[in-house]
């Protein structure tokens, strides 16, 4: 069975940093496209960042540009999200997502394009 497991969440003060990790596993599973989404309490889920297999295509939502960096290690079938200069509004449950097929750049932020999801890791940023 395909599984995505996130780690690295926690409590941090505003201005601090966290690095989230997500490892995908499963027989013959290739996480061609991977991304991070988040959902704050009472809010709808939104895209944070996404990355193609080669890393040549990346997407960042406007609110995190310049602060967050997505990367991946294909040998480990993993994706990472380095979060710097964290703000209280970044507080949310962060979900890792993956799909075995390429996703066109214009759709990388569309959560309906991803077939596999982790259970999330909580990120809390205090003011």
Low-confidence stretches are none
The H/E string reads EEEEEEEEEEE
Radius of gyration: 14 Å
Category from helices, strands and their pairing: mainly beta
Average the pLDDT over all residues and give the rounded result. Answer: 95
Query: What is the count of helical runs?
Result: 0
Beta-strand fraction estimate: over 45%
Helical fraction equals: under 10%
Largest sheet data: 7 strands, mixed
Could you give the distance between the termini? 40 Å
Molecular shape: globular
Q: Please give the number of β-strands.
A: 11
Overview of this protein structure:
The structure is a single chain. With 127 residues, the chain is mainly β. It has no helices and 11 strands. The chain has strands spanning 3-7, 10-13, 18-25, 33-39, 46-51, 58-60, 68-73, 78-83, 92-99, 116-117, 121-126. The strands form 2 sheets. Strands 2, 4, 5, 6, 9, 10 and 11 form a 7-stranded mixed beta sheet that branches. It starts with a strand and ends with a strand.
Element layout with pairings:
Elements: E1 3-7, E2 10-13, E3 18-25, E4 33-39, E5 46-51, E6 58-60, E7 68-73, E8 78-83, E9 92-99, E10 116-117, E11 121-126
Parallel strand pairs: 2-11
Antiparallel strand pairs: 1-3, 3-8, 4-5, 4-9, 5-6, 7-8, 9-10, 9-11
In short:
The protein is 0% helix and 48% strand. It contains no helices and eleven strands. A hairpin with a 4-residue loop joins strand 7 and strand 8 (78-83).
């Amino acid at each position: 069975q395909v599984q995505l497991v996130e780690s690295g969440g926690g409590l941090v003060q505003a201005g601090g940093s966290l690095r989230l990790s997500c490892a995908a596993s499963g027989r013959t599973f290739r996480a061609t496209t991977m991304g991070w989404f988040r959902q704050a309490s009472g809010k709808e889920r939104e895209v944070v960042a996404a990355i193609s297999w080669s890393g040549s295509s990346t997407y960042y939502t406007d609110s995190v540009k310049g602060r967050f960096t997505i990367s991946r290690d294909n040998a480990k079938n993993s994706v990472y999200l380095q979060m710097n200069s964290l703000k209280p509004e970044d507080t949310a449950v962060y979900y890792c997502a993956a799909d075995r097929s390429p996703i066109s750049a214009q759709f990388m932020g569309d959560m309906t394009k991803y077939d596999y999801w982790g259970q999330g890791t909580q990120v809390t940023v205090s003011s």
